Amino acid sequence: MEFLGGDIDCRIWSSLPEARIRALGEMVNVGGVCMEVYSVSVRRDAITIVGRLSARALDYREHERSGRAQIASGGAPSFHLTWSSLLQPSGVLGFIVLRRPVVLTGGAWSPQEPARVALEVSRRSCEPLEMFIGPACCVLCNGDIAPERLAALPDVRTCVNCQRQRETAASRSRNGKNAYA
Ligand SMILES: [Zn+2]
Questions:
Q1: Contacts of range 58-63, beta carbons closer than 8 Å, 24 or more positions apart
Q2: 49 and 114: one domain?
Q3: Who is most buried in 72, 133, 157, 176, counting CB within 10 A?
């Protein structure tokens, strides 16, 4: 099923427990990795999926640095979900089976286990669809952006914590410059 219009195979089941069982079955069959999904952001050219993954699921870390933890998988992922995940998203939306190798391609690994990571799949659709399924997620830490913050600042893409850290870092570097001036 291709309703998201991206390089991801969507399979709709009648309940989340069933979606989970089907995802785990596929994971075992293909020797892959299963990720719990919390948020899907659809843009014209790409879909960003944020979910939880254990460090043990990673085959390789290309590099570690600050910013958003992002993963890539060895083949087209499949997304096991339900209609109600799409229509009334809350908590876990579904389960993605990733093909090995699963590689951390960028960003810092969170100290929490399992960590939140973002998976980006390309989208070739003429429809200029833009939507979120589930919460909007911070582009720096993959955490939820509070609905009140989004209501006040509709274009904001970072959470309050990351924004504060950015401002602290900026004021530190300004003060540092002053000290040497
Ligand atoms: Zn953040």
A1: 58/102, 58/103, 58/104, 59/100, 59/101, 59/102, 59/103, 60/101, 60/103, 60/104, 61/103, 61/104, 61/109, 62/103, 62/104, 62/105, 62/106, 63/106
A2: yes
A3: 133
- Determine the structural domain holding residue 111 and report its residue range: 9-144
Q: Does residue 42 contact residue 120 with C-beta atoms inside 8 Å?
A: no
In this structure, the answer to whether residues 103 and 61 fall within a common structural domain is yes
Report pLDDT digits (tens) over 156-175: 999 999 999 989 988 888 87
**What is the rounded distance in angstroms from the CA atom of residue 100 to the CA atom of residue 74?**
5
CA of 116 to the centre of ligand 1 (A): 11
Regarding whether 117 and 58 lie in a shared domain, the answer is: yes
Residue 54 C-alpha to ligand 1 middle, in angstroms? 19
Lookup result for tokens 């952001």: 41
Surrounding ion ligand 1 within 5 Å at CB are 138, 140-141, 143, 159, 162
pTM attached to this predicted model: 0.88
Same domain, 139 and 150: no
Q: Is residue 25 part of a domain?
A: yes
Q: Domain count of the chain?
A: 2
